[in-house]
Each structure stands twice: as C-alpha cells, then as structure tokens.
C-alpha cells in the first residue's frame, strides 16, 4: 500500500471501519486528558505550576510532565493533586472513552456540569 491509500484513525472511524488502538496509544490518550484536566483546574484557580507543585509537595517539572501528558501519576499522587487543586477528581473509564473531571469542593456533582468546572476526555 502506498501512502496515498493511508487513512487516519479518525477517517477510518468516520467511515465506520473498526479501529484497533494499541495499549500505548490508549494510555497516552488518558495521560493527555488528565493533563488537560489538571491544567484547566490550575488555570481556574490562577495558580502557577510552581505554586501547584508546592501545594502538592511535588516539583514544578513533575507538574509540567503531568500537564504535558508525559506521565501517568499514581493514585496517591492524584489524591495529593486533587487536594492541592481544592477539588474532587472523578475518573470515568468506559471502553474507548475516558473522562477526567476536577470538581471544586462545594460545587455540584460532575454530571451536572458546574459553572467553571471542566471535563477533559480522551
């Protein structure tokens, strides 16, 4: 097959073709969606990466790696991040899709799409 016959994953999905994704591809999608959720919540609070790192007992490069999708944090680290972001973290992994939602403490439930709350999905 030459390159003019290649189809992107998106094109194949739109054509109704089955698209198999490698575990590494799926994990990267999760990492990017989580990173976006951390970034969005940090921006809502007006925090720098350095300040978030201080609050979470981490380093600024660790925050940068998470926000850039370069690392997948452990559950204890996610707990520290949620606390540092003054929010609850809801993770919904459902087959081909995933959603990461930081909900500010005292806000509505994540499904109610709180004002200022953000949903990041892979």
Question: Care to describe what's here?
Answer:
The chain has 122 residues and is of the alpha+beta class. The chain has a single domain (22-121), classed as 434 Repressor (Amino-terminal Domain) (Orthogonal Bundle). Helix content is 44%, strand content 16%. It is built from five helices and three strands. Helix 3 packs across helix 4 (60-67). The chain is elongated. It starts with 8 loop residues before the first helix and ends with a strand.
Kindly list the characteristics that best describe this protein.
122 residues; alpha+beta; 434 Repressor (Amino-terminal Domain); 3-stranded antiparallel sheet; 5 helices; 3 strands; 16% strand
Q: Quote the average pLDDT.
A: 82
Tally the structural domains: 1
Strand order across the biggest sheet? 1-2-3
CATH superfamily: lambda repressor-like DNA-binding domains
Structural class call reads alpha+beta
Q: What is the β-strand count? A: 3
Oligomer: single chain
H/E element order: HHHHHEEE
Q: Report the major sheet.
A: 3 strands, antiparallel
Q: Give the name of the CATH architecture.
A: Orthogonal Bundle
Range of strand content: 15-25%
Pick out the low-confidence regions.
Answer: 110-118
Shape: elongated
Helix content: 40-55%
CATH topology: 434 Repressor (Amino-terminal Domain)
Give me the number of helical elements. Answer: 5
């Amino acid at each position: 097959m030459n390159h003019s016959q290649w189809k992107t994953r998106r094109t194949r999905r739109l054509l109704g073709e089955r698209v198999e994704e490698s575990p590494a591809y799926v994990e990267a999608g999760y990492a990017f969606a989580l990173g976006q959720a951390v970034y969005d919540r940090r921006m809502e609070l007006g925090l720098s990466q350095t300040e978030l790192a201080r609050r979470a007992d981490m380093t600024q490069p660790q925050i940068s790696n998470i926000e850039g999708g370069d690392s997948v944090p452990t559950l204890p680290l996610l707990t520290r991040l949620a606390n540092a972001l003054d929010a609850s973290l809801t993770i919904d992994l459902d087959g081909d899709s995933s959603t990461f939602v930081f909900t500010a403490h005292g806000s509505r439930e994540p499904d109610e799409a709180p004002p200022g709350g953000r949903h990041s999905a892979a």
